[in-house]
């Protein structure tokens, strides 16, 4: 029996995924998480074979969750975001599977089986796109841009990340330069569209 924890912040989608997987004779849903913190806790507590997680969730993203449980549980990302940047970051975080929510239902169970057996399951159309468009941002530039995109001022970002305002401005300037845009809002928007945030 393949033991699975599902992490999805939309209740109806979480219930539907659990019901779909429980129709499979060899898959058992042992836990359901509504945010990233709960996903990590349940994964550590229940030790499933596979964690099926969305990318964008409250508290911690699916990518952060994948990094937190790497080496202990195989991770499959199931998302609506067909962004090559997300796929690259997911693979760097140790994710074994990356599927889009509009894929046929039978592909999900097959992907879980493949990942459980030690293989990879990557959406083919996304894998093709991922060969281009390298992410030019550093981890710190991504953190600062993400907060700027949320509307925080340089001072608020500095306080949250425990940096000086000058350092925050330097990170923002460098990100703006790398992305070839005029301001931090445009930089955050482009980085988000490409899946780099």
Question: Which features would summarize this protein structure in a list?
Answer:
Arc Repressor Mutant, subunit A, 197 residues, 10 helices, alpha/beta, Rossmann fold, single chain, 6-stranded parallel sheet, 52% helix
Short structural summary:
With 197 residues, the chain is an alpha/beta fold. It has helices at residues 11-22, 36-46, 62-69, 84-92, 105-116, 124-129, 139-149, 154-161, 165-179, 184-193, and strands at 2-7, 27-33, 50-53, 74-79, 97-100, 121-122.
Give an overview in words.
Helix 4 links the parallel strand 4 (74-79) and strand 5 (97-100). The protein has helices spanning 11-22, 36-46, 62-69, 84-92, 105-116, 124-129, 139-149, 154-161, 165-179, 184-193, and strands at 2-7, 27-33, 50-53, 74-79, 97-100, 121-122. The longest helix is centred in the last third of the chain and has 15 residues, at 165-179. The mean pLDDT is 87. It contains 10 helices and 6 strands, in the order βαβαβαβαβαβααααα. The chain has a 6-stranded parallel sheet with strand order 2-1-3-4-5-6, sandwiched between helices. It is elongated. With 197 residues, the chain is α/β, with parallel strands linked by helices. The two termini are 36 Å apart. It folds into 2 domains: 2-129, Response regulator (Rossmann fold, 3-Layer(aba) Sandwich); 139-193, Arc Repressor Mutant, subunit A.
């Amino acid at each position: 029996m393949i033991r699975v924890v599902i992490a999805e912040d939309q209740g109806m989608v979480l219930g539907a995924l659990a019901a779909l997987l429980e129709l499979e004779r060899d898959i058992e849903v042992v836990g359901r998480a509504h945010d990233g913190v709960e996903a990590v806790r349940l994964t550590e507590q229940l030790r499933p074979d596979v964690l099926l997680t969305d990318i964008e969730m409250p508290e911690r993203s699916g990518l952060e969750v994948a990094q937190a449980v790497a080496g202990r549980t195989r991770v499959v990302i199931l998302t609506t975001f067909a962004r090559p940047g997300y796929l690259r970051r997911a693979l760097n975080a140790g994710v074994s599977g990356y599927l889009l929510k509009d894929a046929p239902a039978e592909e999900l169970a097959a992907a879980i089986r493949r990942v459980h057996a030690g293989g990879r399951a990557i959406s083919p159309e996304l894998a093709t796109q991922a060969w281009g468009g390298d992410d030019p941002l550093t981890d710190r530039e991504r953190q600062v841009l993400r907060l700027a995109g949320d509307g925080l001022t340089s001072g608020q970002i500095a306080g949250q990340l425990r940096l000086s305002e000058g350092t925050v401005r330097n990170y923002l300037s460098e990100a703006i330069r790398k992305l070839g845009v005029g301001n931090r809002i445009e930089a955050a928007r482009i980085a988000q569209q490409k899946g780099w945030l």
